[in-house]
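My main concern about presentation is that the manuscript never shows what a single data entry looks like. The format is easy to grasp once an entry is in front of the reader. For illustration, here is how one protein appears when written out as sequence plus structure tokens:
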Amino acid sequence: MNRVSKKPGFTLVEILIVVSVIGLLAVLALPGMMKARKRSMGIVILEEVRLMDAAIDEWILERRKKDGLPIVTSEVASYLKGSWRDTDLFGHSYIIGLIGSNNITIAPETKQALDGVGIDWGRF
């Protein structure tokens, strides 16, 4: 009698099934991870704007600036722990207003790019 010995291991069909299940799980998880990433980017942008707005307010009060004057970001930068950022994570420039109006605003392109991730932009 001829004995056929079976070597231990996985068959090609078993490996294909495992790979297809992993691929299916990745496809299901990817949209959620992308939305979470966008949301975290939006939160970082919003926090940066809040810090810069607070620095602008301190600068206005300390220097006794009057409404309608331009905001000098090079002077305001000294009120921040880090450096002044002219652009957000997407590369869009922040909109700097005049004293007495919205001091700093997030670019509409950034808000549009992060639409649908559940961020309340408030007055920014």
In short: Residues 12-113 form one domain. Residues 2 and 8 are 19 Å apart (CA to CA). The helical segments are 12-63, 73-76, 108-113. Strands lie at 95-96, 104-105.
